[in-house]
Amino acid sequence: MAFLTRDFFESDVLTVAHDLIGVELVWQGCSGIIVDTEAYAVENDLACHTATRPSAREFVKNNEPGTAYVYFNYGMYWLFNLLVKGGERDGLILIRALDPQSGIAEMRQRRQKQKLQELCSGPGKLALALGILGQHHGVPMVGRAKPKGCGLRAPSEPVEVVTDIRVGISQAVDFPWRFLARDNPHVSVKHGRVKLPILKNATTKE
Q1: In Å, how far are 60, 168, 200 from 204, measured between CA atoms?
Q2: How many separate helices (H) and strands (E) can be counted in the chain?
Q3: pLDDT digits (tens, 9 = 90+) for 80-101
Q4: CA–CA distance, 150 with 27 (Å, rounded to integer)
Q5: pTM of the entire structure?
Q6: Which class for 180: exposed (0-12), middle (13-18), buried (19 or more C-beta within 10 A)?
Q7: Could you count the other beta carbons within 10 Å of the beta carbon of residue 136?
Q8: Helix 104-111 vs helix 123-130: angle between axes, to the nearest 10 degrees?
Q9: Alpha carbon distance 26, 22 (integer Å)
């Protein structure tokens, strides 16, 4: 199977987030099929880092499509994203879950878990399982500059994709910008199980 090239990421962020389902993320001896993604648009999306972080806007401006955007979340977990740029909407795509394929012994050691479904069924889990850290922020995942042993391998067969709302955010909460492989047991949250948060400024009827 061929690796994805830069032009794959020169499209609309929603299109790319959808089409990444079924792609195999290969990372230094480990790999997994992407089964859960979330799209975040640079413009008109208050949940995207670019809405509040100048550093995120600079990252989008200065980096090529297909570059890894890695950040520390809640002071606990590294999260792995990919930059989309040059299409109708630029953005960042959070890789939320993988179906583990290779390097499973290493994943189990890093995660201190044995069950396959516990290794990569969440964005923090998969980063830990693969050994992705802050030092990997800015790593190109496509093209000649990508590190040896890393890349994104095109799917061998089509995958049925369903959409849902994004997980754990407090802005733009109703955007159906999460994409999942239908009925895959490794997704972070099952389809239809994400609940809209009760916002502080929301009014209630008596």
Answers
A1: 39, 22, 11
A2: 4, 8
A3: 999 999 999 999 999 999 999 9
A4: 5
A5: 0.94
A6: buried
A7: 20
A8: 110
A9: 12
d(CA 174, CA 167): 10
Domains located in the chain, CATH noted: 6-181 (3.10.300.10)
List, for residues 161-200, the tens digit of each pLDDT value.
999 999 999 999 999 999 999 999 999 999 999 988 875 5
Helix (H) or strand (E) holding 152: strand 150-153
Q: Is the pLDDT of residue 18 over 60?
A: yes
Q: How many CA atoms lie within 13 A of 33 on its CB side?
A: 19
Amino acid at the residue 78:
W
- Residue 45 to residue 51: CA distance in whole angstroms: 7
Which strand (E) or helix (H) includes residue 125? helix 123-130
pLDDT the model gives residue 200 = 55
